[in-house]
Amino acid sequence: MQPPRWLQSLQWKHRILLVSNAEFMGEDLRLRSESREALERDLLVINLHSSTEVHTLQHIHDLNSKMHAYAIHMMENGCCAMLIGKDGTIKQQYTAAPVATHVFQLIDSMPMRLEEIQQRKDHA
After folding, report:
1. Distance CA 62, CA 94 (A)
2. Degrees (nearest 5) of the Cα angle 49, 33, 11?
3. What angle is formed at CA 91 by the lines to CA 87 and CA 92, rounded to 5 degrees?
4. SS3 50
5. Which residues contact residue 73 at a Cβ distance below 8 angstroms, ignoring those fewer than 6 apart?
6. For labelling, which of 53, 101, 102, 115 has a CA lying 20 to 30 Å from the CA of 32?
7. How much is the pTM?
8. Which domains does the chain have, with CATH numbers?
């Protein structure tokens, strides 16, 4: 499975957690784009059935149908969520609701994230 092409405008700016259905987001409010933990990691959480929360993608023609079609594609492949790195590659696919702690630990182990952490320490 490949990340959708319509996300290319976010490459190198955000890590993305694509969720095929809101029920797979769980009750953990840390897995929201506006949470402190998500903001620190440049994590954009996108529920593919709700484009209203994705202001950064509103310029894409026919966004709702593209998001819905990709959600169906993910579910057909047994995937309810996927983590995409800033480089645009899939880092993890989830068959169950992702756990925030695990998502953040995975992100924090990525070379680009380690570099970001070091840069913040150097500028502190």
Report:
1. 26
2. 85
3. 155
4. coil
5. 1
6. 115
7. 0.85
8. 5-122 (3.40.30)
